Amino acid sequence: MTSMPAPLWRLTLARAAAWALLMSGWIGLGSLALPLAPSALVMFALIAAWLLMLGAAATIATGGDLPPWLRLVTLALAACITAGGVWGAAHGGGLAAIAFAVLGWAALTALASGVVRSLRLAHPVAPGPPIAAASAGAACAALVLGDVGDLQALAWRLIAFVGLTTALLIALQARARMRARAPSCRAGLFDCSLPAWPAGAWRDTLQWPTLLAGLAMLPMMAALPLMADWCRAQAVPPQAMVALHLAAMFGPVLLLRRAIGAWPLWRLSAVCAGLLAAGAAIVAWAAAPWDLLGLALTHGAAWGLAWGGQLWAPARRGQQGTSPLRAAAGYAVLTLAVGVGVDLFGARGLHGVHALLGLTAALAWLATLARTRHVDPDATRPLPPRVR
């Protein structure tokens, strides 16, 4: 067995660090805000603000005009702002401290994405999809988050994680050597590894299940602190809920990463529709806490497979140069809409959102079958994974 070349090791570490920042920030900031926010809607609004700031920061941080030395300085500055905000949130700083943490963590995550981009462009060949690196980052985030209900301990874990991750990213950026190579990338944020489907995809009902599965992470990740709190009342440890959801998001796609690249679109859509429909059935008929646990498992897996299928199929990606800010604005609006439903109806509001996702995906798949009668696998087969 030969060892991985050093540049690819550095890229893999940077990818894992960026994904760990994304997952731990998304869940950790919501967990810090939950006991401080006067309502669920305020907590969702803070998560929506984090998504919007992440897109805005990525527009700048992942561009080709940011000098490496400036990225090093801003990495350190963003880490200090983030750590200060997290510490303040756990020591009486209130929502103002959370706002600083949201701002700093968004900038830090976007800068980490910029480090990933610079290392990828320095690599002599286009690396494969970051499925293994993202899975490692998610596992790291699960360890860091732990019991999200223990505010003081969570704050110290997040501060230590931010410090260590920033030091790693600074070291990786300092070793990066840029090469004159045009980026074969759709967008700057996470360098082509977040869901973004081509314009006009909603006109094809065959793609609806995968599109809806790509959106399933938004309500689930934003509501995960609440879900962990609800499960605690049912004697389920919060860390078990967090670990289950992250494992569902990345475990199946990690196991199937070699096979999923050969899946035609009809098969990927069928699997995603089945998982989304199963989640809808679970929240409709299962008792607590099995409704939330089953939902985290099925809809997390649906997102992961849709994400992995998109990574292996360049023909399904969004247009190159798509603005991260535009996508982030859409995600923020959807997160706020879910927050309104949860604030008004509690767990039933979250159940309704995911039931609607599952029902719509199933109906779209059935409508496609009724219209076409049969699906030609070769007509919807993705491009080979080497074309990126």
Task: Outline the structure in words.
- The chain has 388 residues and is an all-alpha fold.
- The protein has a single domain, classed as Growth Hormone, Chain: A, CATH 1.20.1250.20.
- Helix content is 72%, strand content 0%.
- The protein has 14 helices and no strands.
- Helix 1 runs antiparallel to helix 6, helix 2 runs parallel beside helix 4 and helix 4 packs parallel to helix 6.
- The radius of gyration is 20 Å and the shape is globular.
- The C terminus is likely disordered.
Quick structural summary:
By secondary structure, the chain is mainly α. It has one domain (6-380): MFS general substrate transporter like domains (Growth Hormone, Chain: A), CATH 1.20.1250.20. The chain is built from 14 helices and no strands.
From the alpha carbons, calculate the radius of gyration and give it in angstroms.
20 Å
Please write the string of helix (H) and strand (E) elements: HHHHHHHHHHHHHH
CATH class: Mainly Alpha
CATH topology: Growth Hormone, Chain: A
* Helix count, DSSP H or I runs of 4 or more residues: 14
| Whole-number total of structural domains | 1
Please name the defining characteristics of this protein.
388 residues, mainly alpha, Growth Hormone, Chain: A
